[in-house]
Amino acid sequence: MTKLAPKGMQGQMMGLFFASLALGNLVAAFFGGQVSADKIEGLPGLFTMMTIFLVVTAVVLLALAKPINNMLQKSERADKLS
């Protein structure tokens, strides 16, 4: 994770990583807070919303995977030359 960060910003990138984990926990709490035994008829809609959210997230991650992989390979090549 810090391989792609500029030398002076590696600590900030680690902070952003931990902030992203916190945001993921917040989203999980949002979805988990919607579940209730009293509102069982709303569960199909909740699961549909979760599925759409996860599919959109997967598409974004798949779109970013190749450029990030290319940047990592360039970084590793630069490290080998140094």
Q: Could you walk me through the main structural features you see in this protein, from its secondary elements to its overall organization?
A:
It contains two helices and no strands. The protein is mostly helical and 82 residues long. The protein has one domain (7-81). The chain is elongated, with a radius of gyration of 19 Å. 0% of the residues are buried.
Rounded mean pLDDT score: 88
Report how far the terminal alpha carbons are from each other. 20 Å
Share of residues in helices? over 70%
Q: Globular, elongated, flat, extended or rod-shaped: what is the shape? A: elongated
- Going by helix content, strand content and strand pairing, the class is mainly alpha
Poorly predicted runs of 5 or more residues: none
Helix tally? 2
Order of helices and strands: HH
| Domain tally | 1
Beta-strand content estimate: under 5%
Biggest sheet architecture = none
Rg, rounded, reads: 19 Å
The total of beta strands comes to: 0
Topology, pairings included?
Layout: H1 10-33, H2 43-81
Structural features:
single chain, 82 residues, mainly alpha, 2 helices
Describe the structure in brief.
With about 80 residues, the protein is mainly α. About 75% of the residues lie in helices and about 0% in strands. It has helices spanning about 10-35, 45-80.
